[in-house]
Amino acid sequence: MIESEHQPVKGPRKRKGLLIVNTGNGKGKTTAALGMVLRAWGRGMPVEVYQFIKPPTANFGEHRAAKRLGIPVYPLGDGFTWKSKDPERTKALALEQWDRARARLIDPDLAVLVLDEFTYPMHYGWLDPAGVVAALQGRRPMLHVVVTGRYAPPELVEAADLVTEMTLIKHPYREQGIKAQPGVEF
Amino acid sequence: MIESEHQPVKGPRKRKGLLIVNTGNGKGKTTAALGMVLRAWGRGMPVEVYQFIKPPTANFGEHRAAKRLGIPVYPLGDGFTWKSKDPERTKALALEQWDRARARLIDPDLAVLVLDEFTYPMHYGWLDPAGVVAALQGRRPMLHVVVTGRYAPPELVEAADLVTEMTLIKHPYREQGIKAQPGVEF
Hints:
Chain A is of the alpha/beta class. Chain A has helices at about 30-40, 60-70, 85-100, 120-125, 130-135, 155-160, and strands spanning about 20-25, 45-50, 75, 110-115, 145-150, 160-170.
C-alpha cells in the first residue's frame, strides 16, 4: 500500500484535536480547509467556518454550498487588509471576528472550527500571535482547528500539529487573459 | 484588497476549463480537490470524482458526504500501487478506471471532473503520460479537470493551467502516537 495521507493509518489509536495550518503563497489553502469541512460534514461532525477577510456579502461557491448543507460560515471582513481605506474599521472587524470565533473554542458540541485567512490579522499586527496561540491551546482537547492564510506567524507554526505550505508551481493562465473560474477557484 | 486567490479577479472575462494539478509530498492534494467539488456543487455545477487507488469499499468522509450530496464518487482501486501482491490486477483496475473517466471528458453536461490519485498509474508506468495529456487536451473546452497525487509527470505539469505543490512543513504528531483523525484527514 502506498504511503498515502488519505488512508487511515494503522498504529496508535490515540486521538486528539489537531491544530492544522495551511499556508504559503500558492492556491489551495482555503480550498483544502473546505475539503476538510466536507469530510467532517460527511461524518456528521459539527463544523463552523469563520472568515476574516471576506465581506458578509460574499456569496462564493463555498457560501452557497454551506448554506445548502447547513454549515455555518461567517464572513466578517471588508475584503481589505493593509490597503484598507479605513484601517481602524478593518482591524476592528478582525478583532470582533476573533472574539466571536474564540468563544467557539470551548463549545463541547463543535468538532471542527475553520479560521479562514486568520493569519492576516496576526501578520498585520492587529492580533498578538502569542495570545492567539494561548487561546487555541486552551481549546477543548478534541476540537480540530484549521487556520488558513499566507505568512503564518512562527508562533502559530510552532504550536501547530500539522503545517502544509501550498506553493505555486505553475499558474500561467492569468497572463493568458483567463479570469478566475467560478466553481473551482471561488 | 489583498492579492488573494479566493476572490474574483477583476480583468479579462475569458473563461475556459482549467487543467489543475495538486501534487507534492504534503497533505491537502485530495482535500483541496474536495474543496473545489464543494464549491462547484454550491454553484449547481455537475461534478464527478474518479479515484484511482482507493478501493470501492472506501467509506471515508468524502464518500459519505458525496453520497448525501448526490455527487458521484467512483473509487476503483485495490488500495495498492507498487506494493501490490497482484500487480497485474492493480494495473488492470487503473486502466479500467481511466477508460471510464476519459469517456466523461466530452460529456456536455459535466462541469468538473476530479481524477484523484491519478498520477500514480502514470508514475508506475501503467499509463503513458503523453497519451493521457492528449486525451485531457481533447476534452470539452469548458470542462475543468483536477488531477491529484504525488510525482506528477512532467508532461502533465507542462500541459496544466495550474499546478500547486503541497509541501509538508510540520507533521510531528505521527511520532507522538496520534493516529489519523477522521473528519479532517480522511
